[in-house]
## 1
Amino acid sequence: MRIQIVDAEGSPMFSSGSASPMPKAQEILQLVAENIIDIPNRIVIEGHTDAAPFRSGWITNWELSTDRASSARRILEANGIEPQRIARVVGYADQELYIKLDPIDPRNRRISIILQKPPEPRE
């Protein structure tokens, strides 16, 4: 199962160029944590940016997307998700656009939370 937490016009999840989630994003991540806390599946957290060039010193969209995914992980853990459930925290920059026809669409700036399928039992 994939949960997409997406920026919307006028309702950003992160300030431009920042890895600190806005209060609305924190609230959404808290709700996600509450709803998946009792599901035992491992969790993958992905950070994505739009294709607008971002470069501030050594920070690029790669670092920004990874930092945003890490911020989401910290919020999930602060809201009861056990750290050992986190399988991966990954940043994709603008390489997997949500709105492919409009690379700078704000909806491309998002966090994906994936509940992995449990492994098949071995015989």
Note: The CA atoms of residues 100 and 109 lie 12 Å apart.
## 2
Amino acid sequence: MHYLALASDYDGTLAHDSHVSEEALNALRRLKESGRKLILVTGREMPELQSVFPEFNLCDAIIAENGALLVWPAEEKEEVLGEPPPEAFLTEIIHRGVKP
């Protein structure tokens, strides 16, 4: 069987303690050099991901924010797939002390 793409989670798969090892980065670079696509899947928000994974542009696509945002780093393009919750809902969960 010939695989054309690799989809991987970030935390606990590519990264450990928010850090991607040099060995893993080299493997991702070899994957890209082989002509395959790299898709990163994460619950993180993009600004946070970019701060802990500066090499995010190795990815052909990133599914971020638990599936709410699709990003194509090379094109600097984003597509919102899920609308944010209503402001009243956010206010209420903060009022009740719910934390992420």
Note: The CA atoms of residues 22 and 97 lie 39 Å apart.
## 3
Amino acid sequence: MVEASPDRKQNFSRLCTISGVGPVVGTALVNTLERVPVKSADAFVAFTGLDPRPDDSGQHRGKRRLSKRGPAELRRLLYLAAMSAAKTKTWRPLYEHYRVKGLSSTATFVILARRIARTAWSIYTYKTDFDPARLTNPLT
């Protein structure tokens, strides 16, 4: 399907420049971003179900959990991409930063998956290549 269209193939190759995103995740991202028009990176993250769902009522402020709305397979692929990305020199400092803060490895992988989703939306929307220098510094 990716090979059928030159535009789709170009978008696929751009998305595969993200560390941790391979052919399977890249294909899923191209397919989703092409079929589901979203206006912002936040909307794309919410579509994937990687956004926090509040559990508040009155004075009670409950625990935030993933909303898990949207395609489970895309969420799974983004999580696996985050696991792979955490081993690269680009994403490793971010992973270690959140682990030192006391977050579990699962929570840290979800954070990385959200960042990968936001980055993928930006690359797809603005037709740019992945630039590791543009990742914001989490250490502030």
Note: The radius of gyration is 16 Å.
## 4
Amino acid sequence: MQDYDENPYTVLGLASNAPIDAIKQAYFGLVRAHPPEREPDAFKRFRAAYEKLRDPQKRAELDMLLPGAWSLPAKPRRLPALDLRLHVEDVLAAAESLTDLDRMEWREYYRKVKL
């Protein structure tokens, strides 16, 4: 007994972004080339792949489970240019980080005032 858990896109000879019309066309073309009466094992492989791809919800679930589905395309990284100049924004940000002027939580310093 064969295992039909292989990638359905490679079984049908398609790219992973193929539209549903291309999936149908590839499936029916393979069924015509390999009829179930002569090649039942090949037909079972094609049918299992087509069943996984014809329903949009099943196809979306399958696409998330395929290897490489979650990897981002590699982009060339560009290092930022080194800027050694002194900017006013940098000085103000450093001063603010060393003070508590922008602090919003003062409850620990709050005491009841008795009159």
Note: Residues 27 and 47 are 8 Å apart (CA to CA).
